[in-house]
Amino acid sequence: EERCLAPGPAALPARGAPPEAAEGRPGPGHEDFRPRIVPYYRDPNKPYKKVLRTRYIQTELGFHERLFVAVLTSKATLNTLAVAVNKTVAHHFPRLLYFTGLRSAKVPHGMVLVAHGDERPIWLMYETMNYIHQHFGSDYDWFYIMQDDTYAQAEQVKALVTHLSINQDVYLGRAEEFIGGDEQARYCHGGFGYLLSRSLLLKLHPHLDSCRNEILSVRPDEWLGRCIIDFLGIACVSQLQGQHYHTYELAKNTEPEKEEEEEFQAALAVHPVSDMTLMYRLHKQFSRIQLDRVYQEIQDLQMQIRNLTALTPAGEAGVTWPVGINAPFLPKSRFEVISWDYFTEQHLFSCPDGSPKCELSGASKADVSEIIESAVEQLNRLYQPLLRFSKRQLLNGYRRFDPTRGMEYTLDLLLEAATQKGHSHVLAKRVSLVRPLSKVEIIPMPYVTEATRVQLVLPLTVQDLDFVANFLDMFAMNTLDTHDNALLTLLFIYHPYDAQRVGQVDVFAGVKAMVAELEKRYAEVKIPWISVKTEVPSQVKLMDIVSKKHPVDTLFFLASVWTEINMEFLNRCRMNTISNWQVFFPVHFQEFNPALVYRGEQTASSSTDFLRDGHFDRHSFAEACFYNSDYMTARTKLAADILDRDEVLESMEVFDVFLHYSGLHLFRAVEPGLVQKYTVRSCNPRLSEELYHRCVLSNLEGLASRSHLAMALFEQEQANST
């Protein structure tokens, strides 16, 4: 109940501040940054107009991004120091732009450059402030301006702005006195970077033209500081709201690796950086300092966890290993048990293709090598200087992925232990390691909607004729009746023998009659078809024909005749396919053979058995969602690679085209909305060996589950024995 303020005279508000500031209340110029609901008002005298909502809720609520960074560079240093800045700190800042007077002929990769057309320093600063206000003034709360000869600790700068209030006019940096000027008036040295708040930028913008005409200065940072002081009455400060802007000035021939001063380690910005090599050395040293701080913080937190856990009802037994990492997942039934994968230094005994043994290679081999090296290093750190361990052999290795904590490893190592006196002994030791899950990152994705038109493409052969009627019925019921924004194109694949007799007997005449009936029933619907003559229906060759007959912005859904189209899946096709970003290859659910699953006891599954008597067919790549423009880009690269060897296309699918010849994300996921009835696919032996083998595997695995097959064999053996 006591007063927090010490007794004494009340603090006076700053010059020009409203009287409310003395009482601790915000003045009329301050904004209330809490979200508020703006009521909708409709003028009865104006015609009704539909209200358009914003795409994102933060736009509607008026939220701003936190930090924008501007780097001032020049034509002479764009390909040297500016590149070094981009490689060291750019990926830590949410938005970073480079500003220069004149640009070189070629802009370095990965850099967003704005050229003003004049190398004069004052003009560059004036144009930069104008550009920032015009394009980003309403989107960001903080603006950090630095030079390309400045090394800034990006994480420290981001942490700084999170501790500052956004409802104040902030001009924060390394405060310097004007030469021959007022001792109280200070400007922020541009070499060490400075921070401007959004409110200050908005107030400063109307006076920039006057500053350009009235203030004479050689240095752009002095010119900006004088402009802010003269028109806003705000001087640069190095400390604000309990936060300090630490800087460090590098001397000539400085060795960053040998700098141990506290001032250097606490610096947010270092200046001047004379060359690219020095920039990289500074980044390496500050990264090492930051890493040491993190390790020390982890140790302190682990000690606190141990001390606090001892006071809990579970006592010291409640401490998990490693300390601070989530406890292992506890399964509630045998179906939730996470299995361990066995491996050696050469082989893995749980392979992606289902084979019992495969060679350890790629990322898995690098993972195992790193884990073994880390285990030996930890043992040496624990037992040195009494013992020194070296690896002889990995006897056994086990690993599993626990979604609650990360990748777990158990290693049986054959080690050679050497003492200080030179004696050695071979022993086996079991070690356990955890590679914990790191910080979860949200990957930014382009904005998509469910209003995109989907163009279905259905290839048909003679073997598919028995299933076309069901496909068209489902298409009419789920898309035409519901007026979904989807179109259908049929691709009739004629064998050369059938193509010669098409005048007498058209094998697809029945399908064409069904299409005519649909067009008659739905007057606004047109279902075109394309006829192709080939012995080998290559998916890529067929898609080449379809691609040329549609606009580049067409969203294709490459379907199969067994696919049952529904609105739920079409919406996922629209949302998961992003032009110039991502393609979608769904894994359909294949129902098992009812003769083996039900064996005459049950002929139809109930609604509660949905997705039970079947499996997701990972061998099939027949269904795909992609944009025509993305396919054409990848297909052009493929054509340049294979030249005129068209026979290569017979061994490829559309999936292979995107996998090897595009830089897009390939999103492949199980799709419960695509359910296919059991049927035996016809596998064309004229296709490549891999495609034919995949088709045969799909048929075999689609028969039934292991339990159903075992029961069928058991019943057959019983019948034979009797």
From TrEMBL:
<feature type="compositionally biased region" description="Low complexity">
    <location>
        <begin position="1"/>
        <end position="25"/>
    </location>
</feature>
<dbReference type="GO" id="GO:0050510">
    <property type="term" value="F:N-acetylgalactosaminyl-proteoglycan 3-beta-glucuronosyltransferase activity"/>
</dbReference>
<keyword id="KW-0808">Transferase</keyword>
<keyword id="KW-0472">Membrane</keyword>
<keyword id="KW-0333">Golgi apparatus</keyword>
<feature type="region of interest" description="Disordered">
    <location>
        <begin position="1"/>
        <end position="36"/>
    </location>
</feature>
<keyword id="KW-0325">Glycoprotein</keyword>
<keyword id="KW-0812">Transmembrane</keyword>
<comment type="similarity">
    <text>Belongs to the chondroitin N-acetylgalactosaminyltransferase family.</text>
</comment>
<dbReference type="GO" id="GO:0047238">
    <property type="term" value="F:glucuronosyl-N-acetylgalactosaminyl-proteoglycan 4-beta-N-acetylgalactosaminyltransferase activity"/>
</dbReference>
<keyword id="KW-0735">Signal-anchor</keyword>
<dbReference type="InterPro" id="IPR008428">
    <property type="entry name" value="Chond_GalNAc"/>
</dbReference>
<dbReference type="Pfam" id="PF05679">
    <property type="entry name" value="CHGN"/>
</dbReference>
<protein>
    <recommendedName>
        <fullName>Hexosyltransferase</fullName>
        <ecNumber>2.4.1.-</ecNumber>
    </recommendedName>
</protein>
<dbReference type="GO" id="GO:0032580">
    <property type="term" value="C:Golgi cisterna membrane"/>
</dbReference>
<dbReference type="InterPro" id="IPR051227">
    <property type="entry name" value="CS_glycosyltransferase"/>
</dbReference>
<keyword id="KW-1133">Transmembrane helix</keyword>
